[in-house]
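One-letter codes give the sequence; the fold follows as tokens. Both lines appear below.
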Amino acid sequence: MLRLIPARQARPDKDVIFALNAEATKRRQAGEAVVNATIGSLMNDDGTLAVLETVTRVLRDVPPSEWAAYAPIPGTPGFLEAVLADTFSAQPALKAAATAVATPGGTGALRHALMNYLEPGQALLTPSFYWGPYATLADEHERKVETFSMFTAAGALDVAALDAALEKQLARQGRALVWLNDPCNNPTGYSMTALEWRQVAQVLLRHAEKPVTLLVDMAYWLYAAGGEPRAFQAELLPLLGKVGLLFAWSGSKSYTHYGLRVGALIAAEPDEKQRQATAAALAFACRGTWSNCVRGGLVGVTKLLTDAGLKAACDAERAKLKQLLMRRVQAFNAAAHPKGLGYPRYEGGFFVTVFHPDAEAQAQRMRERGVYVVPQKGALRVALCSVAEADVPRLVDALAL
């Protein structure tokens, strides 16, 4: 007799991305020349994990007592203040309205958003190309995922599709939680323009007579091409106090320590009473799930955010890794355009998505040639972050089969 409850009796036993990565790794270890574009970790061209040495050094210097002790349930005060100060350094109005809790990576932040801003059975709204575990999170927490068509025929964000989907969703469930992973969307690599952010804000305001909340998934924001990664926040100021504003902050990619699981959920709420209620709800959610996060990780990241010398060293190391990634992006664009591959505007980020009508079959053909990507509905997700620059032409050739 299987004693699991019925809803849990037919769960898949493997994550697709990690299963493909394991297969590619096994073939490579057996001596095959494999191109592995599945896993979302930034790798050096020699195949080793790219790690910010300043981060490693700081974490090693965290005293044992800090690693061993419990952290406060919402997170250490220094960490929360440092995250808010860094995130909103260009927008003091957002910082003044914000509260935050520490979470185990950005995934923990997404979990809290689902459970505190949607009722059971309700659906979040996100673009049609999204990080697959969004659906896993929603399913596990008895919520759903609904999408709007991400791109227009011209390749821009389909704001009209968002508007229509949001109106329909609000009519049915009376509230909405919109997730936008930007800049450097996973899986497409697409980064919204300032105009697109402004248009999104206008759409949200049109529907603000009902509870509408926007979550910005900022996992890759420090790898955006050029400019100030916080610039989009200026377009969100008109929403303050009218539309809920959440930010999923993650240290995984920013500090290249994916297993440290340091993250935060930030909520911007200008009304003090509502802000306090939000802080209480999020802290309660922490206690009811993971209780508290790893104190040593919070202490180490706090130093990296607040010590000017360490921050500068970390920024300089990250800039070199960003250049490594940008060389791959440029090599991909240079090889892919002549081949006629269809994909969104790609200027930076860990991933790019190549459109294909039969992604499963194409991914299988590519695996037979030792090239691994992740098939999705109507597209192939390519983790360029893990592909050596020298292997990009082979990757593109396989995509163009």
